[in-house]
Amino acid sequence: MAFESNEVAATTLQAICYKRGSLQLLDQRKLPLETVYLEIRDSTDGWNAIREMVVRGAPAIAIAAALSLAVEVFNLDFNGSATDAVSLLQKKLEYLVTSRPTAVNLSDAATKLKEVISNAAATTSEGRSVFQVYIDAAEVMLEDDVASNRAIGSYGASIIQQQTEKQKLSVLTHCNTGSLATAGYGTALGVIRALHSAGVLKRAYCTETRPFNQGSRLTAFELVHEKIPGTLIADSAAAALMKAGHVDAVVVGADRVASNGDTANKIGTYSVALSAKFHNVPFYVAAPLTSIDLSLSSGQEIVIEERSPKELLNTHGGLGEQIAASGISVWNPAFDVTPANLISGIITEKGVITKTSAGDAFDIKAFVQKTG
Predict the structure, then answer these.
(1) What is the architecture of the domain spanning 153-371?
(2) Gap between the terminal Cα atoms of the chain
(3) Does the pLDDT value for residue 333 go beyond 80?
(4) pLDDT in tens, 65-103
(5) In the predicted structure, residue 359 carries a pLDDT above the cut 90
(6) Which residues does the annotation list for site: Transition state stabilizer (predicted)?
(7) Cα-based distances in Å from 153 to 50, 148, 189, 196, 342
(8) Is residue 36 helix, strand or coil?
């Protein structure tokens, strides 16, 4: 029976619309004013969609990449051997990983899929059979992402409620980590969604998230769409909001988490974490285990992508008219790294990683080994 992603979420927005042989991605550059889906026919379309921010958010990037190749090979006229099929798939996966180097979910997905197809090739000589195994594996990733997000939401809502005696909580988030950034439901925004469903959310605050405005365009859009009480603030207003006592917790997503807990997320996250630490506001990272990169000892090893100067020089994240002075130089990193000592806990689909009793450090490797 052909897989269809429309069953994933009846009420939440869908960034990824998939059925076997067909993939459409919501063009998030046009939100919130237009809702346009782009047809993705192959891995080249997938690469361009990721690079040009049609789809964004570490989990969604990984799923979109995997499915773009699934659509390509499903529709491909191919008579090669299993070895030929593995070679083709591996090259395409390596190509897709280059679209956004900071998000570990993408490279993690590619590594897992390479292993799946290598194992398949050991049991068959038919190239089409290897393709089918790949397609099945990519579809499982789509299903698993939604289940993981719901678990993250549940664990996150629970830990945040445990940290306070308040009956109603206000939570601040940065960037977009909802159903638009995942296969459905969301990570950090999934935690906010779970708090709202439990009737304990007073208000969700979202930052604009300049220069691409994922907060004002996407997070605000999701909050309004699902009738979650929300307020949009300027990035630079986060500290003042905390000082005024309006924030009970901060929860953000992650593109890559090093083995010591240092976390790469959208630029501006580090500033929010510093403000939270100063004002004694708990600061949580919500991310699936696929966002954890145990090969990195610290955040200093995380490669930070730099975006086009146009995103700062022009309106609409670089797509509109020029507003900055001609000739000015630009530094535009897409992400920053929040040190682990500023993070209260890392919320995953397997539970919350907290600091060890011996000190102010995470033992992420032990948590992964215990729950993996």
Answers:
(1) 3-Layer(aba) Sandwich (3.40)
(2) 30
(3) yes
(4) 999 999 999 999 999 999 999 999 999 999 999 999 887
(5) no
(6) 175
(7) 25, 9, 8, 11, 21
(8) coil
What pLDDT score does 358 carry? 67
pLDDT of residue 7: 42
Q: What is the mean pLDDT of residues 271-297?
A: 97
Which of 91, 71, 75 minimizes the C-alpha distance to 83?
A: 91
What are the boundaries of each domain within the chain?
5-146, 153-371
**Averaged over 357-370, what is the pLDDT?**
88
Say how far apart CA 232 and CA 221 lie, in whole Å. 10
- Axis crossing angle, helix 82-97 with helix 43-51, rounded to the nearest 10: 10
Residue written as token pair 């004694």: 280
Annotate 80-102 with DSSP letters as a single string: -BHHHHHHHHHHHHHHHHTT-SS
CATH superfamily of 5-146: translation initiation factor eif-2b, domain 1 (1.20.120.420)
- What is the reported pLDDT for 11? 56
Beta pairing class for 249-252 and 169-173? parallel
Nearest residue to 190 (alpha-carbon basis) of 364, 362, 348: 348
Least Cα distance to 70 among 150, 5, 146 occurs for 5
Position 2 scores a pLDDT of 47
Distance CA 290, CA 263 (A): 13
Helices in 124-244 by DSSP H: which ranges? Answer: 127-162, 188-197, 214, 220-225, 238-243
